[in-house]
Design brief:
Belongs to the auxin efflux carrier (TC 2.A.69.2) family. It is found in: Endoplasmic reticulum membrane. With about 400 residues, this protein is mostly helical. It has a single domain (about 5-175, about 240-405), classed as Na+/H+ antiporter like fold (Up-down Bundle), CATH 1.20.1530. Helices cover about 75% and strands about 0% of the residues. It has helices at about 5-30, 35-65, 65-70, 75-95, 100-110, 120-130, 140-185, 210-220, 225-235, 240-245, 245-260, 260-265, 275-285, 290-300, 300-305, 310-340, 345-355, 365-370, 375-405, and strands spanning about 190, 195. It has a two-stranded antiparallel sheet. The protein is globular, with a radius of gyration of 24 Å.
């Protein structure tokens, strides 16, 4: 298949995303107001608590067996690597652009966490349904593709609500503490008398200065001890309720149904006695893709109304997510295939590649709302990164299919 044919195959699903996203944006404008703040809130709850878990359960239960589970072990590792590499690139970006402290957590979140859920759920099945798809039979391709994406979505949710949530909360707290410090140092002026809120440095003039070497010896801690202490502090800040989101619980249930033979026989198959439960769950899951895409479009409306983030930061995030991460992702996946960590399934490799080329996760915006820090800036970043994603995803999808053909 020629490069142009692959480009057309890759372009079709991205156009579907753009059209539905544009519809969501239109429905959210004030004159229409069908997807206003209240409607988005209720639809988002349906997606989060009903549609998304239903799709994850139905896809994993149908396709994931013990043998499949063994072959897919590298996907959680691949997603974790994408988060780690994105974080390192975000640190470099922060240093180069001198990002304000209250926005550093947002930059790390946008660079590390990709949209591992709804975009993949649209792109992968749509690529499979194209007549010129390089991944074989469309039905089999769609079934296994949705299973791979469901696993990706569940693992991504765990990482976002443990790693990214903890990092962004730490930076939000640092921003609050910095603001409090700035406020507390303001002098109170009454007539001609000025008095600082903080105690005078003269109060500490009687303290005895210890030699630096003595203090260094006293507080010297082994490097391993520091690492263990940092890991304990990080683990202590993880909100386990957030980590076990409905999609994560649904993934566990889907694994149990798919891998435990008696349960699988009772629910999966044309002659299964409980097949109606599986059919209803699958039907609910089908509503996820259009609903989530409409929400993405509606949320982007805020980006048209907000400002306050530097152009250099936006351009840096775009460069990280659409240039450096995908290039490094090719090297990581190819190395994993070379060392036998990834099988020869081209569709599976395609999903692994795509995990490095996605725009920032929409949950990053949700986290900024929870902490009340960088909400307007996140809307602007989401707007421009998703606009650029239309071209970027098409080009990278084309290149990935060409590499795998």
């Amino acid at each position: 298949m020629g490069f142009l044919d692959l480009f057309v195959v890759a372009l079709m699903p991205v156009l579907k995303v753009l059209l539905i996203t544009a519809l969501g944006l239109f429905l959210a404008i004030d004159r229409v107001d069908l997807l206003g703040p209240n409607a988005r809130h209720h639809l988002n709850n349906l997606v989060f608590y009903v549609f998304s878990p239903a799709l994850v359960v139905s896809n994993l239960a149908e396709t994931i067996t013990l043998d499949e589970l063994v072959t897919l072990w590298f996907m959680p590792v691949n997603i974790l690597l994408s988060f780690i590499v994105g974080t390192l690139l975000a640190w470099i970006l922060i240093k180069i652009t001198r990002t304000p402290k209250h926005l550093q957590g947002l930059v790390i979140g946008c660079c590390s966490a990709g949209n591992l859920g709804n975009l993949l759920l649209i792109i992968v099945p749509a690529v499979c349904e194209e007549s010129n798809s390089p991944f074989g039979d469309s039905t089999t391709c769609s079934t296994y593709g949705e299973a791979y994406v469901s696993l990706s979505m569940a693992v991504g949710a765990i990482y976002i609500w443990t790693y990214v949530y903890t990092v962004m909360r730490a930076y939000a707290n640092m921003g609050i503490e910095e603001d409090d410090t700035n406020v507390s140092t303001i002098n109170i002026t009454s007539g001609s008398h000025t008095e600082p809120l903080l105690p005078s440095t003269q109060d500490y003039s009687k303290q005895v200065d210890l030699p630096r070497t003595t203090l260094a010896k006293k507080h010297k801690v082994p490097i391993l001890g520091n690492i263990v202490c940092c890991l304990k502090n990080f683990a202590g800040k993880i909100d386990m309720k957030k980590a076990f989101a409905p999609s994560t619980v649904a993934a566990i249930v889907g694994f149990l149904i798919g891998t435990v033979s008696p349960i699988r026989k009772a629910m999966i198959g044309d002659s299964a006695p409980l097949r109606v439960i599986y059919s209803c769950t699958s039907l609910l899951g089908d509503a996820l893709i259009p609903s989530m895409t409409l929400i993405v479009g509606a949320n982007l409306l805020r980006g048209l109304k907000k400002s306050g983030v530097g152009v250099s930061v936006i351009m840096g995030i775009i460069a990280v997510r659409y240039i450096f991460l995908p290039l490094l992702g090719i090297g990581i996946v190819k190395a994993a295939y070379h060392f036998g960590m990834v099988g020869s399934d081209s569709l599976y490799q395609f999903v692994l590649y795509l995990q490095y080329a996605l725009p920032p996760a929409m949950n990053v915006g949700v986290i900024t709302q929870l902490f009340g820090s960088g909400e307007g800036e996140s809307s602007v970043i989401m707007l421009w990164t998703y606009v650029v994603a239309a071209l970027s995803l098409t080009l990278w999808s084309t290149l990935y299919m060409w590499l795998l053909e």
